[in-house]
Write a structure and sequence with these properties.
Layout lengths: L2 E4 L4 H17 L3 E8 L11 H11 L6 E8 L3 H12 L3 E4 L6 H6 L2 H9 L3 E4 L1
Parallel strand pairs: 1-2, 1-4, 2-3, 4-5
Family: Belongs to the universal stress protein A family.
Protein name: Universal stress protein
Pfam families: Usp
């Protein structure tokens, strides 16, 4: 069964990528890596550039399952894009990396993560 990971090019994003690889290999894959780029937003640190995507590919090169890297562009909600991919791929698991900035974990996680936790039609692993 498929594992989808919402990838952002940060330390926690790369940890989520490693966890997603492990889960995909355990479950028999494939692993779908999705970096969502919001159109019209030029300086978002969640957008992976070519070099960061290549680092992610290198991290996954020896994976024992098929890996698909996607960079989806949208002017929509990031959570909606990930939910669409999870549904299209019939994913068994969605993996997310969250930053551990306190303030009660940024008011209990943040809107995107909350939406994904509540609406995902599969298990969600938060790293």
């Amino acid at each position: 069964m498929a594992v989808v990971v919402g990838f952002i090019p940060t330390d926690v994003g790369f940890k989520a990528l490693a966890a997603a690889r492990e889960q995909a290999e355990r479950r028999g894959g494939p692993l779908i890596v999705v970096n969502v780029v919001r159109d019209g937003v030029t300086s978002d640190p969640r957008h992976a550039n070519d070099q960061q995507l290549e680092i992610a590919r290198d991290q996954l090169r020896q994976a024992a399952v098929r890996v698909e890297m996607r960079q989806d562009h949208t002017d929509d909600d990031i959570a909606d894009v990930l939910l669409r991919v999870v549904t299209e791929e019939k994913a068994e698991l969605l993996v997310l990396g969250i930053r551990r900035q306190n303030d009660l974990a940024r008011h209990l996680l943040g809107l995107t993560v909350q939406k994904l936790l509540l609406a995902a039609p599969c298990e969600v692993l938060v790293v």
